[in-house]
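[job 0412] stage=fold_complex status=start
inputs:
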Amino acid sequence: MITVKVKPEMEMEVFEKYESNVRSYSRSFPTVFKKAKGYKVWDVNEKEYIDFFAGAGTLNYGHNNDKMKKLLIEYLEEDLITHSLDMATVARGKFLEQFNEVILKPRNLDYKVMFPGPTGTNTVESALKIARKVTGRETVISFTNAFHGMTIGSLSVTGNSFKRHGAGIPLSHTVSMPYDDYFSSNRSIEYIERFLEDSGSGVALPAAIILETVQGEGGINAASYEWLRDIERLCRRFDILLIVDDVQAGCGRTGTFFSFEPAGIKPDIVCLSKSIGGYGLPMAITLIKSEHDIWEPAEHNGTFRGNNLAFIAASEALTYWENKDFSNGIQEKSEMVSSFIDHVIEEYKELKGEKRGRGLMQGIASEIEGLSEQICNEAFNRGLLMETSGPNSEVFKFLPPLIIDKEGLEKGFAIVEESVQTVLNK
Amino acid sequence: MITVKVKPEMEMEVFEKYESNVRSYSRSFPTVFKKAKGYKVWDVNEKEYIDFFAGAGTLNYGHNNDKMKKLLIEYLEEDLITHSLDMATVARGKFLEQFNEVILKPRNLDYKVMFPGPTGTNTVESALKIARKVTGRETVISFTNAFHGMTIGSLSVTGNSFKRHGAGIPLSHTVSMPYDDYFSSNRSIEYIERFLEDSGSGVALPAAIILETVQGEGGINAASYEWLRDIERLCRRFDILLIVDDVQAGCGRTGTFFSFEPAGIKPDIVCLSKSIGGYGLPMAITLIKSEHDIWEPAEHNGTFRGNNLAFIAASEALTYWENKDFSNGIQEKSEMVSSFIDHVIEEYKELKGEKRGRGLMQGIASEIEGLSEQICNEAFNRGLLMETSGPNSEVFKFLPPLIIDKEGLEKGFAIVEESVQTVLNK
Amino acid sequence: MITVKVKPEMEMEVFEKYESNVRSYSRSFPTVFKKAKGYKVWDVNEKEYIDFFAGAGTLNYGHNNDKMKKLLIEYLEEDLITHSLDMATVARGKFLEQFNEVILKPRNLDYKVMFPGPTGTNTVESALKIARKVTGRETVISFTNAFHGMTIGSLSVTGNSFKRHGAGIPLSHTVSMPYDDYFSSNRSIEYIERFLEDSGSGVALPAAIILETVQGEGGINAASYEWLRDIERLCRRFDILLIVDDVQAGCGRTGTFFSFEPAGIKPDIVCLSKSIGGYGLPMAITLIKSEHDIWEPAEHNGTFRGNNLAFIAASEALTYWENKDFSNGIQEKSEMVSSFIDHVIEEYKELKGEKRGRGLMQGIASEIEGLSEQICNEAFNRGLLMETSGPNSEVFKFLPPLIIDKEGLEKGFAIVEESVQTVLNK
Amino acid sequence: MITVKVKPEMEMEVFEKYESNVRSYSRSFPTVFKKAKGYKVWDVNEKEYIDFFAGAGTLNYGHNNDKMKKLLIEYLEEDLITHSLDMATVARGKFLEQFNEVILKPRNLDYKVMFPGPTGTNTVESALKIARKVTGRETVISFTNAFHGMTIGSLSVTGNSFKRHGAGIPLSHTVSMPYDDYFSSNRSIEYIERFLEDSGSGVALPAAIILETVQGEGGINAASYEWLRDIERLCRRFDILLIVDDVQAGCGRTGTFFSFEPAGIKPDIVCLSKSIGGYGLPMAITLIKSEHDIWEPAEHNGTFRGNNLAFIAASEALTYWENKDFSNGIQEKSEMVSSFIDHVIEEYKELKGEKRGRGLMQGIASEIEGLSEQICNEAFNRGLLMETSGPNSEVFKFLPPLIIDKEGLEKGFAIVEESVQTVLNK
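[job 0412] stage=fold_complex status=done
writing structure:
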């Protein structure tokens, strides 16, 4: 029995009629979705889709995970507190303990957990604020093709000109620097270091450098570990705080809980959202090194800092990280994706494809304008959800739930390959 | 059976140890909450609290409303899609139809619905952006003691200096004007009009004027309907967009669905969040007059625009507005609050109390420094959740769930009166 | 013998052909000027003009003052150093000594003299910088209809929307407050004080308040001495620096050397330019209370800080202030202007005239659109230089050289009266 | 007979006592100057100095040029109009005609002349304003180690962090890009082009690119002609206005009237000041391509736009450009300087010297901290005025008046060489 009765044939009209023109995914995926489980989604016509999109990295544990679902239903049934601002609750306390036990302690990380409002842009805004407060400086360095969110503070550190223009005001107090490999010859660090050490460079010593280790929206650009270490070194040299925005690349997306673990760096501030909530419920946290946690009480607040349903699912999600199995599984599946990408680039040279990314956050950039979008459209028609990325939508990306199995991956690959063939008229 | 097992005696330590210093309500209400129903909340020691706080206006329909709870559990059980970014889903479509049918059509309002990310500050940021885009202007006029949120755009239109200072950067492109009754002699409109019409005033013609009809955080200041109409008139005269931030005062808090209905004005943009989600789940919408809905697709986006659980509860919550009963009930209870306030001010002259607010958003401002906070502390000890408001926390405010019954109100009043007596040593 | 030979009949074309469209006074006074002495000017056609304009307050000592002229010629003849950046020179030293002896010491003022670049906007920019440095704050409060200059810092504290718009960027870090008498009921101080003392007002505690005691460009609005004292009191109460921009109203224009003397206030910073140079040569100084003179060497610099010709004339000009005669003379002539204005307003009621200003900085505001401009045009044709002021050019103003004699004034008055009659068709 | 009588022995005290701490050159050159002629200056003790400083490029025609002096004295004697705001005057008209005839027409340049206020920072501010108005954009790209002036607009495009910090507010709406040769491998253009063409770069399409062809204050860095052409090409490709700030490098300093002539580029806007006035009197002009001269009348104004003495000297100065002799002479002297620099670098390897600059705007950068300053101090003691340049004062620079003769140069060189030897203990 389905709770909400709808007439399938009328549905897309509802959105066109009542929803703002700003709507986006209902255009890329023009159908009305109803049900979802694991790596699969169904629309009102019961058409099945394999999900290579995963809520843009929010559904690392898949749709409607059974264990979390059970806990959520129990929580609701028992009338445990649902909304609580940032009051102390059992669910919040449980999450804090669990996060410390499973994530921070084993990694020897001394972070305080801040609940900044349950969206990615909220955690980024809170990170920028505390970095400015700690250092007393105003400028923040961000990177070409960075994406950090839609509110003015986060937009100021976002690279995309279309999004920035949407601000309607000039965005300031930030400087955009070249991301790793932005130039063919790898000089990004030299460039940044020169600007920082030259007192005549016109770039003030910043409060923070904010970065994604893999740029999800900006084209699945993965920074090398060496570059990340170089950036950390610059931060230490000039007393700049290092903020890693791990909203999309974190929570296992690239193989480890934090995406920066293999680089061996220790950011001063880490932004988490998307999959931290486990079940796709709105949640975000900001991790702040204890020594920098100089907030005044309530200096940053917000109504939905106490989404207890999210805490319940989030705590359960952390059990995936109690041993290495989950992490190892991601590694294996990453290699499958990697091999498939190699195959496609090699086999379909007309694509002029370039491999991008890391872990289960990989994609193919095609030089040919419009091609990646066509491939995604074909894939949608064939039952695969996949989206593009990059300033010119030049990348089609593989972002399946991390819990996907090999069968799911292979089915998805088959659809991708068919779509590529169709688009290339092969 | 309680899902999450906790040792009550250790709990507050968990928050002190692991959570950032920024935490706030766990300081005002120093206990660990566990369960909630209607207008009551229980902590881990099974102490019961009457809720005169309602999630700062998020729980207008009370905690864990049974009808919504049933629908949420069913939705979860059937594995209907939970997280969907802004894809079309059955739950989203249902909400759009219902909102149009129950709210917009009967009020003859032609708004498009935007899902800007599920928090108050997200809807405010989206409102500012579209207003600037529509008009091509940059300045926004906001008011003394306004509160609109914690991200840089929203902070720029917020009055509180402590919060503003937290930005760590100068906040710009905004001008703060006196709210209604800011000066003892009512000249706010004259002041604003003069600045707008004088080309030498130093204040640029703004993109928008943003206001709360009752300032929730700024001291429960209620604007008169006349002032609201005057502001609308100024907006029309100078082609300025009028944004009403109805995040706290909307969804029935002052007696009507939109707080501005009795004033007879039609804002260009309306921000809703908090109680729009019905069950306290994160949700926000921005209403934009059709003619101003000139967003490009995806110009403002965000991960949690598709919180389907919230849509399910939100749709159910709208049924409260299918007839006048709910509205009338709020009116009656408002009068009870009003009478009680009159009684307290009259009876306890030492309070130097002043009545503030409208509907179920009323409070008492005490001139005596620190007194309102002491009263709230006493009330907490006696089992009542109530918080202060205003730049110097000078107001103690009554913000019960709208579904509270007379018994609940009276119990709450009794605790308030005892607390006042205690604080005044009577 | 005239040094530069010109063909008079071709001249205005030269300006139309070669000079930028931004040119202004060559439009209001469409003739080519050649010679000047005292309060008189002659164009290439030997038409004589009485000067009620005085270089917008730059020629307080009249055109080409004989004593200064003699010293300038001697200085040039002897090849004494002309351009010297801010090196120590005899002429600069002489000015510093003289200024201290004649101006500062007798008034018991302890200011350091800064040479910030030889224009009004330069002194204002330097004043804003040092005030921000001293206080560590960013906001500056300025006033409706203020005029402080055309560079971005000065424009930010200027009221005129046309000029502000010319910046091409949003102007920030400033707040515009109502000048004295901006509202019919005099509440300006109450407004400002309320904004400053309320921590929820949205207006940050400023580094400085900058004001003109009489607003020259903004409509010849004279602040009352009481208001000036109230502003100083606010500054002291909130540790705000008080900057008086005395560029136009200073150097005797309103009767005393500093315009603020009769109010009994002691600004922290004073901006002087225009007539400080004596002969109309570019010069500006910024006076900074010793305790606030915390500049690092060269923190503000500029090429033309050492205009030695200006120093020579400026030192001579100061001799006017060695006794009370000059000051008393201004007072007498001010009363003549005042009486004449009363007469015009009374006699020509169709003007709907309002008296404005103080000292030899007075004018008549006419409610009738365009009238003041017409009167100035008529006056020009009749041989009088006079300009309008105010956001809508609604004031025609009397700004003769302070050295004008009674005959000169009366001749000017006669032309004004004729012009008024002509415009009113009398 | 000396006009101003001073007691030499007391003089430096005057400046220490009365002048602000911001004073700078009176510290580097701690004596009181009195007289000057050609390339020589004398102090009150009649000590003679050779001038390798030339008012930081203001005295290209030397001190107190006899022809100009004669005209100035005549102008004064005849009581021709001295101060005239921007009214049409004979002297202004003469300059406009002369400038068009001698400079613009022969170079086939179609510029309108704007008088923006008589300082370098005024012309830069006006250039930024008109560029933003023409394009409707806000961002301006400037370069590392650029110097454009001390007012907020000009500071925003200046690289030096000490000067920028002096603003007391964050400087915005500008982006600092690497100047030619900023990196050892010459990639500046590639960097800039990539930022401009990538819509995800975080750098908005700018209104203008502003540059000095040789950076005078930033370390005597000379851009290659190729780089200048590349920058112009970028400007054309992206419809960006090119502003050349020729305040220091213009008026013949590098061998041609405009410094950019040999590069074959045609900037949209040119800023001139310093030597444009001929005699060291305050003057500045902004040249704007006719098609971009869309100013409204009076949109940018200022009191000292009519410094007629400066116009008289400026017109005379232009006669130097009526044939090639002056230009050729500069070329010869430049080669002498160049050879001398080669000699010093070769002979005194301990200097670790690097040659910088072009024309009569050359210098030696020494890697050894503090050395260049010591050399300048030694030179001063020996009777040579010379100053350092660069973010760490690492360059000692040769900026003699262009009219210097070979004897003067050689005398200066001898002092420099002695100073180098002394400092190196040779």
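[job 0412] summary: Residues 255 and 327 of chain C are 5 Å apart (CA to CA).
[job 0412] exit 0
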